[in-house]
Structure formats: C-alpha cells, structure tokens
Amino acid sequence: MDLLRIEHVTKRYAEHTALNDVSLSIPRGSVYGLLGPNGAGKTTLIRIINRIIMADEGTVLLNGKPMTQQDVYRIGYMPEERGLYKKMKVSDQAIYFARLRGLSHREATMRLKEWFVRFGIQDWWNKKVEDLSKGMAQKVQFIVTVLHKPDLLIFDEPFSGFDPINANLMKQEILRLRDEGSTIIFSTHNMSSVEEICDHITLINKSENILSGRLDEVRHRHGNNIFEVDFRGEREQLISALNGHCTLLDDGTAAEGIYNQVKIHVERDADVRSVISVINDSVELRSFREIIPSMNDIFIKAVAGQLKTVEEK
C-alpha cells in the first residue's frame, strides 16, 4: 500500500508555474528518490507535502486520506538549507526540537543519548552548537529529524558537506530506517547515491513529472540493447558470423585474461537469443551481458529531452 500519494498537484507563482499536474505514489517502507535539476520544482513539492505552502490544485493523500495540519507531526523533514541556534548547548538544542515533535523531556533525552552514541558525538552533549564542525552539526540535525519516529522522513540533500566516511554512515542509517519500516523521500543531485539507496524514483523537470518507476525497472527500460561479449576464439570469425544479425559497435579489445571482447547492439529484444546462438556456433562464449545505463546517464538524457516520457508503473 502507498503511504503517500500526490494527485495532479499544480502550484503557480504569478507568471511562473512551479509544478504542473504532478502525480506520484510513494510505497510504504521504501526509499523514494525525488530527482531533478535546480528549479525543477522538487523543493516546492516537498514544501507542499509538509504543508509549508498549499497547492493551487490537486491533492496530497497520506494513508489514503487528504493530509491535514496535524499530519505534519508524522513527518520528519531535514531541509537542504538548515541551521541550529549557535549559542545554545547541543543537548538543549536537540531536546528543544524533540519536544516540538511531542516528546517528553525524559523520552527525548533518553533517545538522543542513544543516537549520540550511535553517531560517536556523545562527547559534544554539553558543548555549544557553534563549536560543532559542519559534519557534526548535520549529524545532530539528522538525529532530531528521525528522533520522534515519524511515518514519513524527507531528506533534502542529506549528504551535502559530509566526507565519504560520514556520507556512508548516513546511507547505512537511511537503509536501516527503511528496513525498520520508515518511508523515506530522498531529494538529491547525487546519482551514485540514488543507485545505492533508492527503491523508486521520480524525475521532475520544468515543473513536470517526466520519469517515474522502480529504479531497476527505469534503468532497464532505458537500456539500448547494447551488450558486451567475452569470448575465446577468432575475432574475425565472430565478426563475420554476426554480420546481418546485429551491429558491431567496436571491433573488440583483449578482455582480462585470455578472452577477447566485443560490444554489439541488437535491434530487437526478440533477436537476442538468436544472436547468442550465432556467437556460440562461431566461438567459445564466456559471458554475454547487457550494458545498463547509469542513473546519471538517464538523468542527463531526460533533462535534455532525449528520453521518451513514461507513465509510472
């Protein structure tokens, strides 16, 4: 069942349309990547979900019901532009935010200390926020976002400013939260992070949803039937055998070890089996693998208008 549904949402500012008839569904217990170039409308959509602003048209449904202001307490939101009160003690700041989300002082303190130990920042409990490094401050902000165990978590560029070790720690925590039942919206420009942690994605460009679906399905859907073939035998013999069955994209290189390699394009899915058969008859086939485009490649092509728009599956 979907936790969150966005149905035909439109938002306009004077002469500018920030979102135009955007619809998407976010499955419960998933990490959902919200992608798009700057100015595409991602932040506007996140603010509408959080009821910071209201849509001009359309509906936001949580658990199948129109969202109310009370539902905001069931959301944890870590915006890209974030900050803490620099003169406060770290513990006082964190407890303050936790109590805004309905936790008692005692419960907030207990949960915070567990998280501080998990993130290795327990020694900073009684220090001032202004003494924190940017990375440690972001850890505190992450903690106060998830502390009240909301149904929906929204992270806008959560790895910005982190070194690789701490970025990996955040990824592990996001996946752990998902595995424990949280539903997560993850907004980012970092396509490698998308491939590492997202289950589903939506790509918004120029205020419209131009691409949605399961991450693996999206990548396969936009493959170009390009295959890499490792084989043992005469390259010329293979090239001759493949003539008329597929397009040779390069004349091959020496693959790792004793094998040779060529790259080919098969026009139709229905022809793949026959091409494999031709290869087997002419040389010793060692591997035949499809080259699946990365999300970075898909993102660039989609924003450039080089992909067909698709309906969400």
How would you describe the overall organization of this protein?
This protein is of the alpha/beta class and 313 residues long. The chain folds into 2 domains: 2-220, Rossmann fold, CATH 3.40.50.300; 224-290, 2-Layer Sandwich (Alpha-Beta Plaits), CATH 3.30.70.1150. It is built from 10 helices and 15 strands. The chain has helices spanning 42-49, 90-100, 105-118, 134-146, 164-179, 191-197, 215-221, 235-242, 272-282, 295-303; strands at residues 2-13, 16-27, 31-35, 57-62, 65-66, 75-78, 152-156, 183-187, 200-205, 208-214, 226-232, 247-248, 253-254, 260-265, 284-290. The strands form 3 sheets. A 6-stranded mixed sheet has the order 6-7-8-3-9-10, with helices on both faces. Strands 11, 12, 13, 14 and 15 form a 5-stranded antiparallel sheet that branches. Strands 2-1-4-5 form a 4-stranded antiparallel sheet, with helices on one face.
Distance between the termini: 14 Å
Count of individual helical segments: 10
Strand order of the largest sheet: 6-7-8-3-9-10
Q: Evaluate the radius of gyration.
A: 24 Å
The main sheet comes to: 6 strands, mixed
Strand content: 25-35%
The CATH class designation of the largest domain is Alpha Beta
Total beta-strand segments: 15
Question: Which geometry do the CA atoms define?
Answer: elongated
**SS-derived structural category:** alpha/beta
Helix and strand run: EEEHEEEHHHEHEHEEHEHEEEHEH
Range of helix content: 25-40%
CATH topology of the largest domain: Rossmann fold
Give the name of the CATH architecture of the largest domain.
3-Layer(aba) Sandwich
- The whole-number mean of residue pLDDT values reads 90
Report low-confidence residues grouped into runs of 5 or more: 309-313
In total, the number of domains comes to 2
Report the CATH superfamily of the largest domain: P-loop containing nucleotide triphosphate hydrolases
